[in-house]
Design goal:
two-stranded antiparallel sheet, alpha/beta, eight-stranded parallel sheet, globular, single chain, 44% helix, disordered N terminus, 13 helices
Length: 333
């Protein structure tokens, strides 16, 4: 699906075209031990990911700890990533910015900062993300106001447990011109099927079902924005490429390698999500030789038992890890 960036005025769409298809990883935000963004490490990770064949990046998503960033930090991180990947992949490589806020006003503030940083689009959760749930009509108007004010395409990141948008309610969201795609999360492939059936004709559907990416491709999603692609971008890219070529049997072994790592880092099933999931993902990335720093307090990196489990999963999936970690997993941060 090709859509065009709209500036909020008539004609409805204008600007350069932007394509959301393929593997689009959220990028981990490296923090120093004192909690500041390590911009050099961020740019190095952006360079690595851009060279793996991914189709875009998301700055400040949930995997990038965007919920813990200020609007200024989101702008600066977006700018750093955008300027880095432009040199490698050109202007057509999309960089989205995460907006994970509790009100329309906050969403506009962060979305505006992301636009100033050069974001090509927004990955935005339903708001609020904390506890309460608005009427769907009010949420639709909130997204409409963000879109009209900021003028960037919006991918709805449908992940908030207390504020999930149903497949039927996405029909109501269809009237918001700036909402162009849905990132389906929540470890529920049945709900993904409902969304595709209900609004697949209106929105680009992207998968965030990390352990079910291959089945998601079969159902017809156009790509994925997910934690698995943060850790294993080359595997995800290869599996998507093979699937698009009709070589499904060759996808299956890759699927199981990804599945194994997801089970050690993200969740063991729908009702067993690791509370330290982002820390586990960061450790899995760093264990493969890509330094992505500390977590922002109060969150922290996983302990010895989890680290050993992650290293075992990476090794079983054929991923090279730092040999020193076999003896002492605490040697990394």
């Amino acid at each position: 699906m090709i859509f065009h960036i709209w500036n909020g005025s008539s004609p409805r769409y204008m600007g350069d075209s932007l394509k959301l298809e393929g593997i689009i990883p959220p990028i981990a935000t490296p923090f120093t031990k004192s909690g500041e963004i390590d911009f050099e490490a961020l740019k190095e990770e952006a360079r690595f990911l851009a060279n793996t064949g991914v189709s875009g990046l998301v700055v400040g998503g949930s995997g990038g700890e965007g919920y813990a960033m200020s609007a200024h930090e989101l702008r600066e991180a977006t700018s750093a990533v955008k300027s880095t990947v432009r040199k490698i992949r050109g202007d057509g490589f999309p960089v989205l910015a995460g907006v994970i806020r509790n009100s329309t006003r906050e969403a506009i503030e962060y979305a505006s900062a992301a636009k100033e940083g050069g974001a090509d689009g927004l990955q935005m959760t339903p708001f609020p993300v904390y506890l309460y749930r608005p009427y769907i009509e009010d949420l639709v108007e909130g997204f409409r106001e963000v879109g009209a004010t900021v003028g960037l395409p919006i991918v709805i990141y449908n992940v908030v447990p207390t504020n999930k948008i149903s497949a039927r309610d996405f029909r109501k969201m269809s009237s918001v011109e700036q909402v162009v795609a849905i990132k389906h999360s929540g470890i529920d492939i049945h709900a993904l099927g409902d969304v595709i059936l209900e609004v697949g004709d209106r929105f680009t559907i992207l998968s965030a079902l990390d352990d079910m990416l291959l089945p998601s491709f079969v159902l017809g999603v156009k790509g994925a924005i997910c934690g698995a692609s943060m850790m294993l971008p080359d595997m995800c890219v290869e599996m998507f490429r093979l699937y698009r070529q009709g070589r499904v049997e060759e996808c299956v072994p890759i699927h199981w390698k990804i599945f194994r790592v997801v089970r050690a880092t993200m969740h063991r099933g729908p009702n067993d999500i690791f509370p330290d999931m982002i820390g586990r993902i960061k450790f899995a990335i760093t264990a493969q030789g890509r330094y992505v720093g500390y977590m922002r307090a109060p969150m922290s990196l996983p302990g010895d038992e989890a680290r050993a489990e992650i290293l075992a999963a990476l090794k079983a999936s054929g991923r090279p890890t730092d040999p020193a970690l076999e003896q002492d997993s605490q040697q990394i941060v």
